Amino acid sequence: MSDDKFDSIKEEVWRQFRDYQPVFLATSDADQPRVRPVTLICLEEKFWIVTGTNDSKVKQIQKNPRIEICLFLKEGDKRGYVRIAGLAKIIQDRQTKTRIAKLCKFFNDFWNSPDDPSYTLIRLSNNEVEYLRPDEIKAYKFKL
What we know:
CATH architecture: Roll
Radius of gyration: 16 Å
Strand content: over 45%
CATH superfamily: Electron Transport, Fmn-binding Protein, Chain A
Order of helices and strands: HEEEHEEHHEE
Largest sheet: 6 strands, antiparallel, barrel
Structural class: alpha+beta
Helix content: 25-40%
Distance between the termini: 15 Å
Shape: globular
Strand order of the largest sheet: 1-2-3-6-5-4
Number of domains: 1
CATH class: Mainly Beta
């Protein structure tokens, strides 16, 4: 793929992500994959998930930080997806936790403040992408 084509596809993938949207998150529980819907926050081309500290996904990420998210795409009757594999890291930095908490529409429904010990912030990084446009049958694969 030419550099121009790659840049165009990469920009197209970033346009699929809104500031705040549902995705599916896969983690590992020993040798068993676990998939669940989560809300993904996209800020400055970085991906974040807010969750409860005692949630099973946090324990699974602590044992194995390799994760994958999947964003389902739909245009009319056509389907596609963006799958992103990478590493999840639990963020302790108060400034970052506060900044992301302010973006989370449901934050105050679950936590009192960014200092609440039951609030965990997860950042996804080292991202490998598989992108299937809704009108195509061959996926593009690349690193973000």
